[in-house]
Amino acid sequence: xYLFRATNHTYYTRIFYKKPLIYMGFPFGVKIxxxxxxxxxxxxxxx
Length: 47
Prior knowledge:
Blueprint: E1 2-5, E2 11-16, H1 19-23, E3 29-33, H2 39-46
Antiparallel strand pairs: 1-2, 2-3
């Protein structure tokens, strides 16, 4: 999982799926908004 900030200053996490799910047709990964603009709060949510 990765934590990154978009241009609108909202933090997101990216979750990657395992290969068996990708072979079944799922996307490579998903980007989920953490609904916060604070880096400390986003780190607590991310963990």
